[in-house]
Structures
1.
Amino acid sequence: MSHGDGVSSAYRQLPSVSSLLANDRIRSASRLAGPALISFLQRELTESRTRISQGERPEPGDVIASIEAALDALERPRLRPVINATGVIIHTNLGRSTVSDETAAAMAEAAAHPVALEIEPETNRRGGRMDEIASLMRLLTGAESTLVVNNCAAAVLLVLSAVAARRDVLVSRGEAVEIGGGFRVPDVLRQSGANLVEVGTTNRTYLADYDRAISENTAAFLKVHPSNFRVVGFTSSVSTAELAALGRQRSIPVLEDVGSGALLDTASYGLASEPTIIESVAMGASVVMASGDKLLGGPQAGLIVGQRRWVDSVAKHPLARAVRADKTCLAGVAATLRHYVRGEAINQIPVWRMLATPAATFKDAADAMVVALRTKGVPATAVGTEATIGGGSLPGAVIPSFAVRLDPEGGRRVDELARRLRTGSTPVFGRVEEARLVLDLRTVDRREHDALIGAITAAWRP
Ligand SMILES: *Cc1c(COP(=O)(O)O)cnc(C)c1O
């Protein structure tokens, strides 16, 4: 038989769409409505033809099995829960902060039901979208007003558009930075229509540099926390307090992007300090911008916190409508802030619990997990590790932690083991170090330990 005959018989052997529609295995695997199933099967058959043209010779049974598997995958949500065993507390690629149980419940309730989002129940008048969050934030920071938008990038874009379009914004050269994920301060400024005026030098900026650069066209001073890197050595920068004092003299507002948006001091947990929203407000910033899903430990959001006259004018800008937060986000931010108001953030908010739990707790957990794994035939070991904050917060900072380490042996490959864990029924993400898989327990919830043991055992099987 010539090569060409093999190809044409392989094509002929492919099942037709109508025979697949009648096939019992396909019928029981599919939950798709008729038209979607037909286009799905057509796409799968096109892929089979491509594979044949590339030299593969799938049996009809293989084709059915691969369609079954593809139908199965279609039913498994991509955004189902995974276990974060990377040791990176705020892991951007795994969706940053996880929220507390109470916050998650508040978000689910708001999603599933109508809520009095913009109606004052007392008067039945319009209003109130930000009232609850603003009063919680006021209790925490003393700030007069708060507006919540889609994320911190949107907050910065919106604030600059509302406060400084077509005018100058003075930024220290050391703060005209790229935060990552496409957020570059000069680009955001340009997009807002504001004109960037850099002052000082990369490593040293003085108050006099700002003072000298002020003109009639100056709309604001912008301070940006350079979250993801540190300048060390011969450096000098101007504090928010000094800048705010100058701003008061010259009637220029200070806008501060603090990034991570902590409401607690990381220095209490053996780490360096991240600027907090509270400090920035106290030092006199007119408007503070922060992320909701970094050290705040809430859902994705951008917080705009500050003096009423500025926050109100930002809220009235047309762009505010385009970047506004939905009811689930607002319910989540409010529930998260309530933990801080009650003084229970350390115990209730996962990010802070992970930060604050003593390493000994994870040593005990790793030891216990290793015992459980060994009884199931998995030769794991407990090892000391260093967890990190992630999310562009506290670059270089490490927190002592413990992990379960798997040493693939006898020709097994560590990347294959890691792939199996990522794609299992409970997906697990760890990190590969020196050809071993390290599963750091600092970022794993206690309640996930049994599921983690199950996932490791399943992935380890030959
Ligand atoms: C992370 C960060 C941002 C972007 O925040 P998103 O909530 O991801 O939009 C902006 N500025 C600073 C300083 C940051 O650290």
2.
Amino acid sequence: MNFIETRGNDGIKPVEVPFSEAILNPSTSFGGLYVPAYLPKLEDDFLVNHVNSSYKDLAYDILKAFEIDIDESEINKALDLYDNFDDASNPCPVVKVKEDLFVHEQYHGPTRAFKDMALQPFGSILSSIAKKRDEKYLILAATSGDTGPAALNTFKNKENIQVACLYPDGGTSDVQRLQMVCEDGKNLKVLGIEGNFDDAQNALKQLLASQSFKDELKKDNIKLSAANSVNFGRIIFQIIYHFWSYIQLLKQNEIVYGEKIYLVVPSGNFGNVLGGFYAQEMGVPIEKLLVASNENNILTQWINTGVYDIRGKELKLTKSPAMDILKSSNIERVIFSLFGAQRTRELMENLNNENIFTMSKNETQIVQKYFSAVDSDDSFGLKIIKDFSLFGYLMDPHTATCIKAYENLKKKNLKCVIYSTAEWTKFSPTVLNALNENNEKYADKEALEEISSNYKAFLPQSIKDLFNSKINHSMVIKKDNIESEIVKFIRES
Ligand SMILES: *Cc1c(COP(=O)(O)O)cnc(C)c1O
């Protein structure tokens, strides 16, 4: 299958490209995104036939339906990475916590957050294509905490790929920072930036637009690529686990085939819930996709009013930082699916030029057929973490935002799967504040120890080891020095 562009074609770029091209060179006409030319329809009994499949077999069959131009052996090699998750036979368990409430735990991979679900196989596939084409790529990442560790972990020592990762010094948790600065691999460069996440992200954007930087890369025959969720190579792996949600409920005899379910997704860049939208379009019986936001409630505003307005808005720093967002990239793919390229280009250009777009009433109602949304604040999240701990389930602050959607938006008496996008260990000071109902400033190490001993919570060895690991990247620099440091890195490695 080929891939097309959400904002239409400029007559210079190819009208369609194969999967390998879309993921290696994700830039498109008019600043759009690549999407599949159509969504494969699966046979009627696809779900029932996969009730006893392993996750890898399910993933393989879904990837095959997209007819991606990747060798079978490379696909299998990529999917084998799920064997490194806590339970190779069930990398993302769906756990019952109440009669109608299930938690899909997406954090059992190497960096303990949901980014591993897609980045682990994606890294393997990207490197294999680059190698096959005999091309070298530099991946630039700016992270507020979860993408960085997951990208470094997947690309370390991968051939034909180098990674430069920028994080805001002081702006991540200790665990997140240590996961980055302790990662070794001669193809990795991790740079702390004096500033906040916006500064890191703006520095990255400037770099991507810098002609001098591109000229430097050209001298070494290095191309730029991206590992964020604008890359369809990540999205494709985020479709699979929504099928898994449904199949697990079938397998656990919680639903009968055809019965609809709700999915609740804590959202930022909208990649995770976009995967659910595609799964629904491909035939998974989903009643509605419930979008959870934090106080940065731009997605709630968009879905509830049809207006996406970031004029004069500033990002708030919350206890669920991976959902702190103003411009959410993947809503564009939904808009394209529902309203086509011309309208997508119009709305996105409005947003770029005026920081606002407004959909018609009819368009808004169409979006609302698929999605409902609600936001919650930190105090709600803290209370939920405490409440659920009392009957033995420990969740992280991102997962907690889902409970608001479960309580407010679930209109029918159907089963509901909420997505747990991070393990409590990644945000342990916040979790301990919730459990102890206080505001103390805990260090991660202290909070991890107290929670694991007092609440008998499992603490993975990889997290414990971080505090005794060698720091391989100690550099913290000013924004102005990023370009020269990265050029130095690609010359040296
Ligand atoms: C990235 C992330 C999210 C947001 O996912 P999107 O696909 O960007 O909507 C939510 N929670 C955690 C813990 C994350 O790392």
